[in-house]
Specification:
Layout lengths: L9 E5 L5 H8 L3 E7 L2 H14 L5 E4 L17 E4 L8 H5 L14 H11 L3 E7 L9 H11 L4 E8 L10 E8 L25 H5 L19 H4 L64 H7 L12 H9 L4 H14 L19 H30 L12 E10 L2 E5 L8 E8 L2 E8 L11 E7 L9 E6 L8 H14 L19 E8 L5 H9 L9 E2 L1 H6 L6 H10 L4 E3 L10 E4 L18
Parallel strand pairs: 1-2, 1-4, 2-3, 4-5, 11-13
Antiparallel strand pairs: 5-7, 6-7, 8-9, 8-10, 10-11, 12-13, 12-14, 15-17, 16-17
């Protein structure tokens, strides 16, 4: 990326990250005089690339924006601001966790320091970048508050949702771009150069085109997952699809997951002929995009897909590098934005980028509806085509459902997080589980093998109706137990999960329910009965078993009436989570009102499921 001499429009970059916005503005001929970023690895990345990609006089400041004064940043006139405060509080991940906290989280208020510095420098304009979710955070109130604060500074505001794929990037990445400007010139956004909104309907850039001849700094063999729980499933998924391929709704004869039970990047495999889905900052073992060959993408490939120039080096380890990439603005996207700023706000006659009139509507919002309808139609088409896919394209992926007429298991808990299941009785076996399948009914008998234990309560019964087509003729499940203990109610549901995994392709009842934000239960709990029914935990379990009680927030007085001590909310959360009851309050998500709670599932979580929300200090 060549440097442009004689730059005279001074730009201050806030929340710089690794310089995605800065690269575009530098290329467009702006002078980025200073960058402000608090993350050490990001700052080291900026320093490592300064000589090749930034102005020699760019000042790289490693500091907290909430604690720095303008005199420490730049002593002089600033013409334009660029930056995007951290987006995690407005992101899809936050919404799937039970509701994005937005400005209720301190990070959601960092834009106020953006405003503070604008108020001091009085630039001619600014560009603010964030995720699409910021528009709907807290029912849209957060965005209205943000607009109000910027408007109060005397700026005319315009914003649009734009997709980076529309600008030649091999990645669909939707972002809100807000531009404020003063004086007589009115900003216009650049017209997309690719896709349905481009002038000539130019095709999107494909992943394979961008990744051609990429240089890897990692051994490709090390990028293949091995010996993990879902590693073998990745090979079954065709390019362009994700875990949804392995659901009942998509016609899979041996489904593994509930519909909409995972994030869209879970087991997502890129397609070589299309742009990839959004690259995120926090990638777990099974977070895509994976390469269509079934391996993780290398850092070099991720940089290419994120629109960074070859030779751009990153500081830190692989996890840090992925985070830096996933949090960055796409330089290939910021460049046309910078040109539009130069052409409109600064009246540069030499710049000639095609612009969008304010009245021009883009297809991006329509595409959301089309995508949803397309997913539904794919479910129908997939059911028709899955047989040929399995028979021809995928080598031996399907294990037929083995429905045992009877089985016996012995199990115990090495820790609360680890269960040991055996077919033969061992010295550490605590429970026996007798399973019979007959006349479409799964019958489960759970017995305690250590009946001499003290403080032990007895008797439990669960009856459920099942309505999954994958289960064939199985329409009911009954569990009877001669054991029940209020401190470990999850044992009952573990027995149910063992039975489900024995007679079906589903590893637990969780896959027959879905994610709590979009539940699609394929069962109904008809009976939930335990002895010691007056105990608070017992009352809560019975209350939970009515799925309607898990569909929204409730007053903490509901728990108090059951006998729980709601005054010590933190201890209540910890104790119930120790029982694998997924209880959430304002301490885990600030979207939940103070004095309210939500139980997310009508059962205790399976032993291998962990919620990623934390209890705030």
């Amino acid at each position: 990326m060549s440097k442009t001499p004689n730059k005279n429009i001074k730009v201050l970059s806030l929340f710089t990250g690794i310089g995605g916005l800065d690269l575009g503005f530098e290329k467009a001929g702006f002078d980025v005089v200073a960058t402000l970023e608090w993350n050490k690895d990001c700052c080291n990345t900026l320093r490592a690339n300064k000589e090749s990609f930034f102005s020699n006089n760019t000042k790289i400041i490693e500091a907290d924006i909430t604690k720095i004064e303008p005199s420490e940043i730049y002593d002089g006139k600033i013409d334009f601001f660029i930056g995007g405060p951290p987006c995690q509080t407005f992101s899809a991940i936050g919404r799937r966790a039970g509701g994005a906290s937005g400005r209720l989280d301190d990070r959601g208020n960092l834009f106020k320091h953006y405003c503070r510095l604008i108020r001091h420098y009085q630039p001619r304009g600014f560009m603010f970048e964030n995720v699409r979710g910021i528009l709907s955070s807290n029912h849209g109130q957060d965005w209205q508050d943000i607009l109000k604060e910027f408007s109060a500074l005397g700026y005319e505001l315009k914003y649009r949702i734009l997709d980076t794929a529309g600008y030649g990037v091999a990645q669909h990445r939707e972002r809100v771009i807000l531009v404020g400007q003063k004086f007589q010139n009115s900003f216009l956004f650049p017209r997309p150069t690719h896709g349905p909104d481009s002038k000539n309907n130019k095709p999107f850039t494909s992943a394979s085109d961008v990744l051609r001849n990429v240089e890897h700094t990692e051994d490709e063999k090390s990028l293949f997952n091995k010996n993990g729980k879902y590693d073998d499933l990745l090979g079954q998924i065709p390019p362009g699809l994700n875990y949804l391929f392995l659901t009942e709704e998509m016609g899979h004869p041996n489904p593994k997951f509930a519909w909409r039970s995972k994030f869209s990047d879970f087991l997502y495999k890129a397609h070589p002929d299309t742009p990839v889905k959004t690259i995120v900052a926090s990638m777990g073992r099974y977070s895509g995009p994976f390469h269509w060959d079934g391996r993780k993408l290398s850092i070099g490939e991720l940089l290419r897909l994120q629109g960074f120039p070859d030779g751009y080096s990153l500081a830190g380890g692989r996890t840090s590098k992925i985070k830096q990439i996933g949090n960055s603005v796409v330089p290939q996207f910021s460049y046309p934005l910078a040109l539009a700023v130069k052409q409109t706000i600064f009246s540069d006659k030499k710049t000639n980028v095609e612009l969008l009139e304010d009245s021009t509507l883009l297809s991006i919002d329509k595409r959301k509806g089309v995508k949803a309808r397309g997913t539904r139609s794919r479910r129908i088409t997939a059911k028709q085509n899955q047989r040929s896919i399995f028979d021809v394209q995928t080598p031996s992926p399907i294990v037929p459902i083995v429905r045992l007429e009877s089985a016996r298991f012995f199990f115990g808990y090495q820790t609360r997080e680890k269960i040991k299941l055996e077919k033969l009785k061992t010295s550490d076996a605590e429970f026996s589980l007798d399973l019979k399948l007959r006349n479409g009914i799964i019958e489960i008998n759970l017995s305690n093998l250590q009946s001499n234990r003290v403080q032990m309560n007895r008797d439990a019964e669960i009856e459920m109706s099942l309505n999954s087509s994958t289960l064939g003729g199985i329409r009911k499940l009954r569990l009877n137990s001669d054991w029940y203990e209020t401190s470990r109610p999850f044992v009952l549901w573990d027995a149910v999960n063992i039975a489900i995994a024995t007679v079906s392709p589903f590893p637990s009842i969780h896959e027959l329910y879905g994610h709590f934000t979009e539940p699609n239960p394929k069962f109904n709990i008809l009976t939930f009965m335990v002895s010691n029914s007056r105990e608070p935990v017992s009352q809560l379990l019975l209350w939970m078993s009515d799925v309607r009680n898990t569909m929204g927030t409730q007053s903490l007085s509901v728990l108090e009436n059951m006998g729980f001590d709601v005054k010590n909310e933190r201890e209540l959360l910890k104790s119930l989570r120790d029982m694998r009851i997924d209880l959430r309050t304002n301490l885990t998500n600030k979207r939940i009102g103070k004095g309210e709670f939500r139980v997310c599932y009508p059962y205790t979580l399976p032993i291998d499921k962990r919620t990623f929300v934390t209890i705030n200090k």
